[in-house]
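Handoff note, outgoing to incoming analyst
You'll be picking up this chain. Sequence as last confirmed:
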Amino acid sequence: MSSEKIRTELGWLNGFDAPSFQPFRHAEIARLNYTAWSHPSEFIALDLSNPNPPPNFISQRAKWVQLVGIASLVSSLFTQTEGPLPEGILLADEVGVGKTLHALGFIAFINQIIQGRTAGIVDPPILSLVLQVLSHFLLFLIIPIEDNPFFAGVRDIPEQPHLIVVPHGLVLQWQQEAQTWFKKGAIDIFPYTGTVQSHRFFWGKDGPYQNSEFFKSGKLSRIIIIASQNVCNFGKCP
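Most recent structure output, in case you need it:
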């Protein structure tokens, strides 16, 4: 199956990746960490309907192997029947193949499904069967029938943030990758590190989490990137 066919199955149209993904990255991103978060005005001005990158920008698209991985996650974790919860899934491959983008692409897909269902949009082909029915007037009617509508065994995806647990030294790297791929305003990204005192501030009414626009609206579009050591220390927090 070609890359474009997989994108179509995922509902990613016109040669682009997920609707919440940024199709271009700045040519100086590796040297300057130049993203929509650090330079929002320049990214807002981009014509995202044009597949050709403007000056100083380059296209960014998921590779075929990454698209296959994302589609595999979707096929494994969306089920035909409600409950019980499916087992987890393990991605194991060589370093540099793209497991980070697998995870971010899957998060983008989940958000896409939530927003689409809220708006009454039919799920993309990877989650549905499409039947062609011959009408009395010899016209083909396309009738979508949900095939795998349940995520982790439930029809309504919980309105909770996505949690990414990584070693402490990779928190910043994951934050930078998420900011490189996601459009600013499509999702909020929170690194969760530091002391117990900083954790209290993080969750408090004046902290970044409760002041997120997505928290106020009750939407799912939030990613928390936490160091594995902080998870181990949770039991020590008052």
